[in-house]
Amino acid sequence: MFCGAQAIRWELEELEVEPLPSLRTINRILSRNDLTHRRTGRYESKGKTYPALAATSVNCVHQADFLGPCYLRAPLRFYSLNAVDIATGRCAIQAVLQRSAQPTIDAFWAIWERLGMPEHLQVDNELVFYGSPAHPRGMGALIRLCLLNGIEPWFIPQGEPWRNGVVEKFNDHYRQKFLGRTPIAGEAELYFEALRFEQKHNQRYRYSKLGGHTPVQALVMGNPDGLGVRFPPAKQAPCHPLKKPESGRYHLVRFIRSDGLLDVFGEKFHLAPETLYEYVIATIDVKEQKLNVYLDKIQVDKINYRMF
Questions:
Q1: Hey, what long-range contacts does 232-235 have (CB within 8 A, 24 or more apart)?
Q2: Is the peptide bond before 157 cis (omega within 30 degrees of 0)?
Q3: What does pTM read for this prediction?
């Protein structure tokens, strides 16, 4: 849940309480009234090494996820594409009325115009993200959009949404503080209020992992000259269908079970016994037409993978 000093301060702002107490003051009050709780003991690993992406710099890794369908009183049914830059905590929110190829391309393009383009984009295994199980090697709209713009997509394991934990946590924040609290009359107001909420989060929300700084402050500290952020080359998003890329790589993280099968968007490949009950990275190299499999950064298999 979105709770604690940040949530209380936002609530007081919305109620126009004056003077507005600082986060430190709110935390002291919570502590004094024994309303805080810290985790006892450290998190214990289940013993399986997960190949998580390391966000070493601004726009190194974005996590993105579709939330919805969402409903408004208007009535209006929509989906929200939410993205977070892992290094700085900056978010971007883009509402779409349909979760299909062109609206998805348009939404990511709009997000990248505000956040900048990432080096790696981590998403789950929704059809609109990877394409079609009937054509697993066809590269869906998002894969093509990324590869044509120098971005490497990463697909988390099936059935493990917590691997996209940063954006999943932001989704909870979005549900509670935007969907549950903001009265919206129609489509135009939805886009306006979503952008306002995005800006409020990026300019005013303070993260302990950022040393108490806001996402915008973290961006300035991580990229002081402003030259490290790459934006889309054109204002207008490209049109679906996109041409097939001739180079680039995209990755799938998969847990190999007792059958020893690697599932690449519905297509199955037998792997060596040492991969059983382990997480592997399956990397498709479009230029080389190869499927390379890695276990603990060591390549354990190379499979011919002709792109259709």
A1: 232/109, 232/112, 232/113, 232/117, 232/149, 233/149, 235/113
A2: no
A3: 0.84
> What is the per-residue pLDDT across 129-175, written as a single tens digit (0 to 9) for each?
999 889 999 999 999 999 999 999 999 999 899 999 999 999 998 98
| DSSP states along 214-254 | -HHHHHHHH-TTS-S----SSSSPPPSSPPPPSS-EEEEEE
- Region for 205 from its dihedrals, namely left if φ exceeds 0, alpha if ψ lies in -120 to 50, beta otherwise: beta
Query: CATH 2.40.50 residue ranges in the chain?
Result: 249-304
Fold of the domain built from segment(s) 249-304 = OB fold (Dihydrolipoamide Acetyltransferase, E2P) (2.40.50)
Query: For 228-245, how does the pLDDT look when each residue is reduced to its tens digit (9 = 90+)?
Result: 799 999 999 999 999 999
CATH superfamily of 61-133+160-222: Ribonuclease H-like superfamily/Ribonuclease H (3.30.420.10)
Helix (H, G, I), strand (E, B) or coil at 121: strand
User: Max CA-CA distance within the chain?
Assistant: 66
- What angle do the packed helices 187-204 and 215-222 form, to 10 degrees? 60
Beta pairing partners, 255: 279
SS3 191: helix
**In the predicted model, is pLDDT for residue 274 greater than 80?**
yes
Helix, strand, or coil (residue 88): coil
Strands 267-270 and 261-264: antiparallel
Q: Are 199 and 114 in contact (CB under 8 A)?
A: no
